[in-house]
TrEMBL record:
Domain NUP160 C-terminal TPR: 1129-1380
InterPro entries, sorted: Beta-prop_Nup120_160, Nucleoporin_Nup160, NUP160_helical, TPR_NUP160_C, TPR_NUP160_M
Protein name: Nuclear pore complex protein Nup160 homolog isoform X1
Location of the Nucleoporin Nup120/160 beta-propeller domain: 62-535
Compartments it resides in: Nucleus
Organism per entry: Sitophilus oryzae
Keyword Iron appears in the UniProt entry: no
Key word Nucleus present: yes
Alphabetical UniProt keywords: Nucleus, Transport
Amino acid sequence: MSEFTLSYREVTPDQALYEKWIEITLHTGSRGTQSTLQDIKITERANGYSYLDSTRHYTRNRFIYWRISSDTLELIEQSLDINLTGNTVRYRFMDSPIIDGISVQETEENVIILVPTVCSVHMLRFPHPSNYHKQDDLLGSHPNLAAPSIFSKASTLEARNPNNFYVFNNPSTAMDQLPNLASSFYDTENGEAIFILSYPSLELLLIKLNGHGQTICTELKGESLMPRFLSGLTEKFRAKNNDAGQIVSTLIQLIDYEVYILTLTRGGHLKFWSSKNGQCVAVIDILTETGDFGRDRLQHAVLKKALDAQENDCPLAIFMSFPSGCQFHILKPIVSGQQIRIKRLNTLTSLESNLIDFSLQCDRLWSLWRTSEDDCVIHTASLKSGTWTPIIREVVNDIQNPVNRGECDPRQVYLQHLFHPGRFPLHVINKSLGIYKKSSYITSEINLTSVAAMKQAISLAIESDIQSCFSDSEVMDHEYLEYTEWCWQKFYSCCLQYHQTSLRPLGLMVIPQSSGAVLLKKATFSFLRPTEPLEHMILCSDYMYKDQFINFALLAEESDLIDDVMTLFEVLVYLDKQLNNRFKTEFEQKLAINLSPNTVITNLLENLKIEVDGEYNNICQRVTVLLNQCSDLYRAIHKVLELLRQDSTPANPDNDVNPSALHFFSSSLGVSFVAASLRQQCQNRFAICRDLLIICNILFDTKQLQPNVYEAIHSVCKPEIIYLTQANYVMLWMTKLPALNNVPQENSIQRLAPIKLTPAYNIKPNGAIFSLLELFSSSTGGHEARKMLAKIDYNGESMAHWHLSLLPFISYLRQILWPLKNSTMLAEWLVSSGQHVWLQQYVKMLSSWCDWNISSCSFLLAVSFLMSAENYKALDLFQIAAKGIFTEPFMQERMLKGDKGPQAYINYYLKVIHLFELHKARDCAIQMANTALSIVETDNPLLATLYSIKFKHHLALKHYEEAFYALKSNPDHERKKDNLRDLVKTLLDEKKFDVLLSFTYGDMDELFTSILLTRARATDATSNVFYDFLYAYQITRGPLCHRLAASIMYEQAYRLSQTNTTDALEKQVKCYLAAKNVLQLVDPQYAWVIRPSDPDEDEDEVILESLAGSQKDNEVFRIKKQIEVVDIEIIKKELIFSCAKLKLARFDSSIPSNVNTPVELVTLLNSAGLFKTALEICTTYNLGYATVFESLTLKCIMLSEEENPNAWDWLVENDLQDLPANRDSISEVVWQLLQDYLEKYEEPNMTTLHKIVCKKIINMRMYIPFWMLKSYKVRNPSEILRLLHCSGRLEEAFEVAHEYLLAALGYGKELYGFKVPLAPNSPAFCLPVYEIQCFIKELQMQNDKDLLRPFQKEHTILKELFEKYLATATRISNEKCQLQMSSFGSIGSVANRSIF
């Protein structure tokens, strides 16, 4: 792999997520150090370690870094490729400040971190990341899934394991001093941790900890190098030159498979100590190698080894600081037999003097320096060239307070500014809030982890501050606003100050596997990434040379142009330095309102010329002089424009996909890193375009170009510069946008499905704020860029280097975002992720100048408007977008299915209509359907679909008349039926019967009726308005439909008979009445309806006789009736039956009304006292009146025995208005009612009902009323006599018999129905002679049985009267016979005939 020759640039990823720390406190039990701890001043330091394996996604771009602050160690694990959970742990070594000598070593199973403190050494073991990913090859892995960090299971128990730490005692000669330097190393071969600790008193303590509780502690001494006879001189020499022997740096290094301890003294001696025997085996004077610097006193020195070299062949770097300058010596230890010597590889001299940290790679040196302004600079140098190149630091923006022009609430302005993505980490805002509260004497505890809670806490704190200031006095509005603004400025100042403090650099960590580095700061960190050629040229123009660009195809293919391009960039850099921030800001603001860049830059230069004419002329002159150095200015500008258009590493589409590459920069940190890097590149590219445009204007103003060059630049380059300026501004604008919250609704998938989009879920943890670019990079954009990256032809190890992975990845992502292309991926993602505001602004910015995908963008913007409930805007845009369905890839892919001509437009409109339907925009769907109908041909099969769509949405909007006309216009009969069914259903549900009646159905009339009837039959009969509407509709149709109207009413009544409620009965009665009345208007021969026959009815047997002479038997058929014909008389009967049931139900709801037979109904009516209705039912159905009169007689008898006032309840239901007015006694009224009914319902000359009533009275042992006996005597005295006699009523029977005989003899004949007495000329009549004889015999028997002879008198009188009657009857009979015989001339004898 070729060396990266360009510069590096600092980029700070967004670190807004709040870190949740695992806190572990260790008490090592240090002995004797507590009294001296206050004298120890440990400088805050930071460093880190990156995993060695760069071929696997879970260790590539993954690193550990730590910060040391007194006795606290913070360990953080980060990865750019996978998200980690539980990745922060904080160790607190109580009363044991940590020495900067921490090291990390990987083994197959563990990651071991060695930590030395002033009184103890610790070996922290954590599982290797591979332990969490053993199943990835089998199960696969997903980039968005988080993996546990190696620190996720860190525990106090493990850290306190005695096998993992050792508390040491100071050497005896060190007395009360504590070690100030330390180094650590893990020997994987022996499985032991090696620590070396150096004391200010020159002692060295070697500690070996093997993890099994075995510890070897050795004090290193240097006497072995001196002969014994010189030992005394050695002590004196040490005493005299104690400062020169002071150890300033230590290192543990594996050389030739043996572990050595290296110490560097202030005197410049590099000593090699054997870790086996603790003896010093070599001393090398480094100062002899420093040239002129060797004469100066060594002030500071640091010894480090290369990070990416093999352990046995690892070069060393020694930093030496002298009063006259600083040097880095790159050395390589070489073991020759028993001797160790060093080989000088390189020496680099630095102009800086205050070193913070440095790191060595085999081919590069990194250094971090503190400047006199308390800032820092970073330099890197290639060991081949030995030339220092500065690393471009990121400028901390927003030093000025947010500008509030008085139009907005300060709270809104400052909160939006504070929580803008990437501006302030949450922990900075949280700490600043604590500082602000302390300054405002607000002492509530602050520990917030979410953006929403933090915003609320800030607002409450500032409001509390404001209220405390004005609590005791009235305040004017302007004073309140001024103080509010001051409070917000004060809080913002706290954030800035703390943020500046958090940016103080503590260390530099190099990631050799990625050819990048991490700048570790007090509370944050930033990456040092490789730059692209354009960045290097614009930011490091003083350090660029031609050979740097030989590895970049676009420049290497025309190497003769590189010098001209470099000269052109010198001009661009010069111009950028001359332009102030106001000029740059105003240029961007004008572009934001869609002004042409050329117009804006011309106006700004005109204003600049007016303001500083002389300075402007000097600038123009300087620019002209520099440009004249270009041999071909046109080609140079054209080459720069080519670099602006395309700069990515081409991916071969035929290459296989590298699965590991799909994880590149997919973690939240990696996405933020990429987004921040892309933001920087977009800013640079926009500045280049702006400055190129200025150069064009200056060249045109000075007119010092040759005409052909002028014309080429003016006609070719300048239009493209304007075009690229606008495109890059759009890119820059997008990189600064915050992402909007979006929680997709349940129907989001359904709404986006027609255009083949899937909703993006961007719910953010703890309400964290991400930029739009981060969100896009973490979803669609990042996935597509990784797919392209995965096809680059690099091996896994080489591809891990950022200039081979990060820069191409950013380039691919920039290509996806680039507006001047056919892809609409960004616009699609903006729709699917709910970023509707940004999409609207994005399309607005492109619409004035960009012709690429204008129809597709209009379509997607319309979808966005739809999802934002701006339907009419969407309608206009959908119609505009239709122009591009044949020309733009998105429209062809998503809208067409190989259709051409008008059919394609129809299909497009149908899809748009579907979108409107999903968003309930029915009026817009109708308009779109009208648009489609305006171009559709009459024979197009989709014509019916469009009319159906119109109908459906008109109906939903309650445009019933328009809906009816739409269905009538539909050429498809089946669709017309379906639409009519929907219309009828809707209007019936809405009770819009008048609207239904207002339509003229024409040939759809039968269908309309069928639909209504089907609906009526499918609806419960009790609350069924459809039958009523059908009845009304058939009546309005005229006399020809009256029978159908009657049939409808009868059907409803028939169905209601199955429901036993009062309302149903009432409705049933009305239906029967309506059916009867309308049938009476029909011709009698058609006055009938049909109904289903009884399913339980037996089948009829029909015999079909065989033909004469046939040998076949007669055929027998069984036929079951399916329907019955119902005429008006049957309906009348059913009406009476229903009225009776209704009356019964109204009278007493407790009586069951599920009666189906007249007999049952009469029984219930009798029990309720509704005798008049019961008699009507009996009359209608030809039933006997016996039960009615029995019941009524019983009521009379019971009320006679005991009157019940409640009897009036049923009495009034029997039409008492025809009875006499005297109603003082309820029993009299009842008897009168019985008398009235007997007179009304007893047939002439019949006593059937009289007999029933009298029997009931006799059975109840009551006396027969006089009116009853009177009526009975007239109608049938013989029967009453017989009834009384048989019932044992002898006294009453005597009276009847006595009066009956007298009436026959002519005494009171009218009382017994005789018109004339017994006489020869009277009509023949007969008396019950036998019954009277039996009665007389009964009286005789009663007298014979009783000594008192109780009926002696009655017997005598009746017997004498009976004998008299017999004598008279005999005489009269003889006389009548003689008279008749004489009249006919016949002779006969009737002397012996008796009349009975």
